[in-house]
Amino acid sequence: MGLLPVSRMGPRLCIHLLCSATPGLVPAPLDADAVTANVSENGIFASMIDYLHDKTKYVVADSGYDDGKLTQKCELRKNNKYSTRRLILPMEKYKHTAPSRLPSIRFFKSERDQRLFRLRKITVEPMFDILILLLAVFVYQLLILFNFVNGRPLSHVKYIIDGV
User: Fold this and answer.
1) N or C: which end of the chain has fewer CB within 10 A?
2) Which residue has the higher pLDDT, 82 or 131?
3) How far is CA 81 from CA 77, 78, 99, 101, 113, in A?
4) How far apart are CA 34 and CA 15, in angstroms?
5) d(Cα 11, Cα 6) in Å, to the nearest integer?
6) Rounded distance, CA 149 to CA 8, Å?
């Protein structure tokens, strides 16, 4: 099972979504949070980590989640020897890259991790589009209900939207 934390910026709002991305299964939102854009992505995701299932093997995130403490909290180790859960995020080697980051960089550059990272484009990103579409349908239904309750023509939804 893999989980993909992502954030999507709005005008002043940032939505953090944790969803399943198990190959062959339908992606499902598992946790979400909406905060003002000035709140650190790492801080939001750190609290979500506590709820990850122990059988989660990979957590794939974008570079905004690149933080040593976050990686330590996210990754599980068995007998302090090998990882049973890995955080996969874009990492590059630079002239002054800390030696402790080199194994993670090699791990991210592997063919398997590149394949896992590409899952974000076909699982999480479309999930945002689906949620936004469903929210728009829900708001439309609320406007029709508002018109019905107030004895207005049900089709006059545009007038309400134009007035907002």
Assistant:
1) C
2) 131
3) 6, 6, 18, 17, 20
4) 4
5) 17
6) 35
CB of 143 within 8 A of CB of 157? yes
SS3 6: strand
As to burial, measured by CB atoms within 10 angstroms (0-12 exposed, 13-18 middle, 19+ buried), residue 90 is middle
What pairing do the DSSP bridges indicate for beta strands 82-83 and 77-78?
Answer: antiparallel
- How far apart are the C-alpha atoms of 30 and 27, rounded to whole Å? 9
| Tens-place pLDDT, residues 43-53 | 888 888 888 88
Reported as a single tens digit per residue, the pLDDT across 7-36 is: 555 556 777 788 887 777 777 888 888 888
Q: Read off the tokens for 104.
A: 């993670």
Q: Tell me: the pLDDT tens digits for 61-83?
A: 888 888 888 888 888 777 766 67
Query: Of 73, 105, 72, which is closest to residue 89 (Cα–Cα)?
Result: 105
